[in-house]
Amino acid sequence: MDWGRAGIADRYQDLALLLRSFDLNTGSRLPALLAREYGLTSLDEAKLSFYLLLDEFF
Asked: In a structure prediction context, what are the per-residue pLDDT tens digits for the chain, which is 58 residues long?
């Protein structure tokens, strides 16, 4: 198990990586379902893009 990046962070960091994985593996991002389950009324696409770009540095 890899705990190298474990900790408290913005939920959008997890959402961005999850949505990218869904898109690559299933072709579906399911954004409405995820937003609802996370208690959000909508997803902030700018924050999702930021965390996807940030992940490229790790």
From this structure: 556 667 788 889 988 998 898 888 887 767 778 888 888 888 899 999 999 999 999 8
| Local structure of 55: helix, strand or coil | helix
> pTM for the whole thing?
0.75
Handedness of CA 21, 34, 29, 42 (dihedral sign): negative
Residue 17: which domain range? 11-55
Alpha-carbon span 26 to 48, nearest angstrom: 19
Number of domains in the chain: 1
Question: Is the four-CA dihedral 1, 7, 5, 53 of positive or negative sign?
Answer: positive
